[in-house]
Amino acid sequence: MQGCAQCEIGFRTFEDGIAHLRDTHFCTDGGVPLDSTCEGQRLWLRTATQVRIEARVNTFLSLIEECTDAFKKLAKIADDLRSGSLKFRDAEDTHGYPVFESLVRAFEQITIILVFSSDFMARADRAMRSDPRKALNGDQFRSQLKAFLDQTVSRAQKDLEQAKVDIILASKTESRPGVATLASIGPEFMIAMMSSGLFLRQLKERPDYSTVAPDNDIDNTEAKYVNVGEMYKKYSNKLQLQVNQKPQKRLISDIYALEEELDILLLLNSWQRKFCHDFSRVLDPGSFRMTTKTRLSYFRTENYYLLKTIRRLEIRSNELYGLKNHAEKLRDRLQQRIEIEEESHGKAIRVFTFVTLFFLPLSFVTSFFGMNTTDIRDIGYDQKLFWITSLPTTALVIGVAYVYGYKWDSWKENSSRRRSTRQMERDKELEVQVSRSTVLGRLFHSDASHEDVEKGHPQRQDTDLSVRSTLPRKEKARRCILPWATRRAVPIEREAHPTC
């Protein structure tokens, strides 16, 4: 019984339940119950299994009622549309109205309602069979189906209202916008359609599981579909918010990663458009030597569909280019803000460094003169000694720090440059000396060899040590090497007997 706390808790046995009914619910003024038979009272009691079955049946009835209400809403508009589109028998147009695109879209929405409702009920049945306790939460299933049906029915209603406008325009004017025509297609059109579906498909976005109830299995199986451009636009807006709120260097790597992904998507988009253009040129009957009327009729539909796909790809390409430009501007803005913050930090560091360099030598000298030793404690000088010692020390420390911080690199670079210059000059002088000695040696060698020739001294090419005089072993064995005196006697005889 509703409103009874004991009935909601339940009873251990039928007898306890019957006693509760007699004492609480079916008790009259005279103390005689209205239904005194046990069999009649048992009808008011249910076991746990019967309760789950009834809850499951009630859940399906509620789901069917939601589907029926949705179709009733559409049926009312469809009846008005049908009544308004009836023609008289003496009307000139005996063919009736054409099929408008709005009617086709409305039919698609109705089909989606039928398919989704049946699939939803099947999934709900599996969920209740796996966990019978879910049958008690029928309102949860009903609310989920109702949310989807309301969204789909609203789209179907808009399409039916647009169909009314199309029918009125078609009956009043000769132009018939948005007419759906039938055309024959071939396997080439199926390839183009599948390619377009792959190119322009949306990405599945899973819901946030942290906000989903643990018992809600239906929500976990549902997913939202988003466009590629919308997904990257959301991520770009998120990066922009982080840059404006808290600029950090790690965001630069995220922006670079976004730019790389956008470049990849733009390259892929260009390949997709090139495929559509090439496929359209391949299907063009003008590219064949001989064609048929069937090919011509097929190409009209295929070319229209491919051009439509190319236009959609160009729109996506423009979106990606816009996101890339936005990412570049965002990166430049982030770098500028980081540089401004680093400049302010650098000023603070310089001030802190100057204060440290000024007071640290003073503290050192103070500590030095404050040591508790006899040679320092018993010095008979006044405060003048402290300043004479501390000021030069402070100036020396500041000068060394300045040189090391601002001039050390330049000095080091200049010294290395001068060292390399001196080394190059030494190398050049050494090369000049070597070249001079080589030239002089060649001159002396050439003069000596000339003198040897004039004197009749043997040359290298005239001996067995030269390459020119290298002969096979047999020829070397047969060759007779004349002694030095014989070789020298030949020019002497020629000088003694000159020829005319």
Automatic annotation (TrEMBL):
Stated membrane topology is:
Multi-pass membrane protein
Q: Which keywords has UniProt assigned to this entry?
A: Membrane, Transmembrane, Transmembrane helix
Family matches, as Gene3D superfamilies: Magnesium transport protein CorA, transmembrane region
The organism's superkingdom is given as Eukaryota
What GO CC terms are in its UniProt record? plasma membrane
InterPro entries the UniProt entry points to: CorA_TM1_TM2, MgTranspt_CorA/ZnTranspt_ZntB
GO molecular function term, any single one: cobalt ion transmembrane transporter activity
Question: What is its subcellular localisation?
Answer: Cell membrane
Q: Which residues cross the membrane?
A: 351-373, 385-405
**What's this protein's name?**
Putative Mg2+ transporter
